[in-house]
Amino acid sequence: MPDTLSIAVRPLVEYAFLSGSLDDRFRTATALTEGTKAHQRVQARYGEQDRKEVYLRTEIPYGDLLFAVDGRCDGLLVEDGRTVVEEIKSTRGDLTAIGEDTYPVHWAQAYCYAYMYAKDHDLAQMRVRLTYVQVETEEERRFEREVPRETLARVILDAVEAYAPYALMLHAHRQARDASIASLAFPFERYRSGQRKLAAAVFRSIEAGHNLFARAPTGIGKTMSTLYPAVKAIGQGTLQHLFYLTARTTTRAAAEEAMARMRAGGLRMHAVTITAKEKICFQDEVACRPESCPYADGYYDRINGAVLDMLTEETTMSREVVERYARKHRVCPFEFSLDAAYASDAVICDYNYVFDPRISLKRYAGERKGDTALLVDEAHNLVDRAREMYSAVLEKRGFLELQRAYKGVDAAVHQAAKGVNAAFIVLRKSIGEEGRLVLDGQPEALEAAVEAFVSAAEKVLSAGAVRAETPQLLDAYFAAYDWLRIGKLYDERYVTYVETVRGSDVRIRQFCLDPSHLLRQMRKGYRSQICFSATLSPLNFYMDMIGADAEDYTISVPSPFDREQWDVLILPVSTRFRDRERSREKIVRQLADLLERRPGNYLIFFPSYAYMNEVYEAFAAERPDVATLLQTPDMPEEERERFLAAFDAARRETLAGFAVMGGVFSEGVDLVGDRLQGVVVVGVGMPQLGLERNLIKAYFDARGMNGFDYAYVYPGMNKVLQAGGRLIRSEQDRGVLLLVDDRYLQQPYRSLLPEEWRQDGGAGEA
Questions:
Q1: Distance CA 547, CA 237 (A)
Q2: What's the confidence (pLDDT) of residue 195?
Q3: Which of 33, 142, 39 is nearest to 93 (CA)?
Q4: Which helix (H) or strand (E) holds 422?
Q5: Is 502 in a helix, a strand, or coil?
Q6: C-alpha span between 226 and 216 (Å, rounded)
Q7: Kind of pairing, strands 735-740 and 678-682?
């Protein structure tokens, strides 16, 4: 009996018939694709005998395989005793720009449905209709054809024939993958203390289809403890895919290393890393247009061959591998990595590709989510990242500039921009002397003006005329559309505030106070979500903020390291903003004394760049003999690499690296052994007092929680734990940890320190 391979109609015809170039010129927010409202409007006119969303299926033998092709037809209509297959597409663009043969892939999709129906009902020919709907005007344009059954059959057979080499490759790969997983041993000689416990909890959670919140200390090997059991779950058929989600490049590298280690142990699994477009683009300027980029020109004509080649020859597809095959086949490396991701068993990428509705992998179908697990690394970062994903901002200045730029050029855009600017002027008058105002809900006048602007801007941008003002209009359009999109999510978990910026400009922000509900919605449908971090503490706080369900599992794994590996000292001085000038001299003397008594490589962390720079200058004057490094904002990747490379175990002179908590050097950095002898953490990581943090505080206070802890203490202490966690990374490491702040001797700060930092009776005072 032949093996059966299932494929839906739409991905089948897109694989076989999609052609042409990448083009990043304006595409409306509702691209040319199925639109729910447009479908419903057309389908609402159907008669009693007509049917909508009709499931159709057929089987097509090909060699030793049987292709099971299925999908839902938009409409089956009875007209003059004949059955008509209708495929509905929607657009915000100009309907007159769409001709009968503009989109062959749409005809192919409709033909496949028509063939299935004709075959089931033994019909010699079918009437096939394409209906395009303009979502704003509700205008429609129809094209209709009478098509013999043989022609319909030829289209679906051609599609299967084009798709077959790819399907055969995937089929063979999955058999090899599952066999390799069955024999895959844990890729280290032994489990570290607590590592087996975590791996077992991950496997059981995936098996049960529950989420897991795991607090697991630095050094336990969390990456392998989560990836290995997830891979095993794929081998047993519980899963088919996994996402390893990270906030930083450094943690992505750890996942790639773990996959490479398992590959060395015999694993055959497709794992692709998605790198941000601006980082991986081959061109000096990111411009995905056929006339500007040879990798965009004809992209869809070459992409199938590129994906087939890479997936046939490679398993772990890092940035370097993706770039190599992208150059070979002359395809855009970013879009290539996305296309490879849809076909891969494992995807290593940023949180955004799952949780951000603007960026998420839109083609990742709901039915695939059910056999996919999310592994969320350093999950404590997800809270603030989610707040940004689900918030939106507009500024007055851009609309005023567009109002002036389009005067006498386009009346609709001019008037629409003027309307938004006028709404901002009203808001500015209501702000008062404080320079900021928290609103009760959304300003209706601004909402209406922004909607009108989006409509006017779309008409101009859809026309494709490139003007000097076009980039400015495009930026304003996407900001305005994002504002409306977030407005649809707006509820009691949001607040809107207005403030003056840069003198007379006005800024308004829809700010997400509590992202838990939206995170829960975005992960809906996935089989399991594993959230893990060394600093998921306090656990209840992060479960609340990430959106835990009542049935979710939790686990806390003790540190695998001996307390004797840590020499914890506390310098009880105040680092509060008002006391910093007074305590700076004492901190500098303590640092100078520590580095003289215990020479070596040190990382010294601060809560802000300004505070770091003040102490750095004083320290450099006090100890000019000590080599120093200083983190800077927006540090290029090469400089970051040089910074870390300076922490050499063979180095003879003392080195002091000054860095900020929550920055690139405080998480995901492994300076094992003699590469790091000490860490100093100055302050309790408290976020700067400000409007947004105070709004978060007020929100949770109103719900009977400790708002100050939620807004300030817990996020701050998380940065402390991450920074201090750089010190001990293996069973052989030893080092000194100096905590600089008198609050470390007080509650709740002391109770939030790891047990091994508290040293039973308390850390010694410096």
A1: 27
A2: 93
A3: 33
A4: helix 411-431
A5: coil
A6: 11
A7: parallel
Pick the CATH number of 563-765 from 3.40.50.300, 3.40.50.2300, 3.20.20.100, 3.40.190.150: 3.40.50.300
Peptide bond into 538 cis (omega under 30): yes
Element (H, E) at 474: helix 470-487
Query: What is the reported pLDDT for 32?
Result: 40
Q: What is the pLDDT of residue 288?
A: 84
Is 371 exposed, middle or buried, given 0-12, 13-18 or 19+ CB atoms closer than 10 A?
A: middle
CA distance 606 to 319: 32
Torsion from C-alpha of 164, 170, 175, 179, nearest 10 degrees:
160
Q: Compute how many other C-beta atoms are within 10 angstroms of the C-beta atom of residue 617.
A: 13
Domain ranges for the chain: 3-166, 192-269+345-388+515-560, 280-344, 391-512, 563-765
Pairing of strands 436-439, 140-148: unpaired
Q: Residue 87 forms beta bridges with which residues? A: 130
Question: Is the C-alpha dihedral spanning 696, 698, 701, 707 positive or negative?
Answer: positive
Predicted TM-score (pTM) of this structure = 0.90
Residue 25 has a pLDDT of: 60
User: What is the three-class DSSP state of 387?
Assistant: helix
Q: Which residue has the tokens 């030893």?
A: 734
**Of the candidates 11, 341, 307, which has an alpha carbon nearest to the alpha carbon of residue 159?**
11
Class of domain 192-269+345-388+515-560 as given by CATH: alpha beta
- Report pLDDT for 762: 46
Residue stretches of the chain with pLDDT short of 70: 1, 24-35, 365-367, 464-469, 759-766
> For residues 313 and 31, is the Cβ–Cβ distance under 8 A?
no
What is the structure's pLDDT at 728?
85
* DSSP E strand stretches across 227-363: 241-246, 271-273, 316-317, 346-350
CATH ID of 391-512, from 1.10.8.80, 3.40.50.10140, 3.40.50.11540, 1.10.275.40? 1.10.275.40
The CA-atom distances, in angstroms, between 633 and each of 628, 630, 726 are 17, 10, 20
Q: Which CATH architecture has domain 3-166?
A: Alpha-Beta Complex (3.90)
Tokens encoding 660: 């900020």
Query: From edge to edge, which strands make up the β-sheet containing 627-630?
Result: 627-630, 655-660, 601-606, 678-682, 735-740, 566-571, 764-765
| Preceding amide of 104 cis, omega within 30 | no
pLDDT the model gives residue 433: 76
